[in-house]
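Box S1 | Example of a co-folding query
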Amino acid sequence: MFALRFEYRFEAAHRFTKTESIPCMTPHGHTWKAALAIKSPQPLNSCEMVEEFGVLKKDWKQFLTAIADHSFFHHAEDPILPALWQHVPSFRSLPFPGDPTTEMIAACFLKKAYAMGIGKTLSRFEHSLRQQRLENDFQMTMEIFETPTNSIALDPKNLEVLEKFVPSFSDFEGWWEDPAVDARWIRRRDKKAQSGRPTAVLVTT
Ligand SMILES: [Zn+2]
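Box S1 (continued) | Returned holo structure for zinc ion
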């Protein structure tokens, strides 16, 4: 079995709402690295490859560069958001169903990678794999580096655990009452992560 892995660096800010640590509650940035590994049970193709890296990486790279890079990762209900939206209406943000810890980012990014169908070209033999009961061998692992030496790695089993203990993780939608605001980026196939500012915040005095 082959495992393909690719890494990307991106810059993003975050802050925590449930901490006593002043550095952690202060909006601050990191140079993050996301490493996505894909295990494929399928044999090599006629070019003696599992798949071209460029094909596998294209959508994921676009998500990271267009959405995650130079964004503010925040708890979906972070109380500082209304002030930010009022003074910087177009700031780039990415909401999370909890504090955007490295663990949370890894989990949401792994879920997003599955939702986007990253590696879907490796499932050409999906039917036969199912017959062979090998479908579980197609597996992605996400590792997020907060610093060059600190990282969190997750596989789908961790997602199941997270869904048990963080209810909002599995039902992350409608965090603002405004239906025009779609924060379901984690489960969407496209590369957008529209977070926008809720209409309610626009009506300020
Ligand atoms: Zn930090």
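The chain has one domain: 2-202. DSSP finds eight helices and six strands in the chain.
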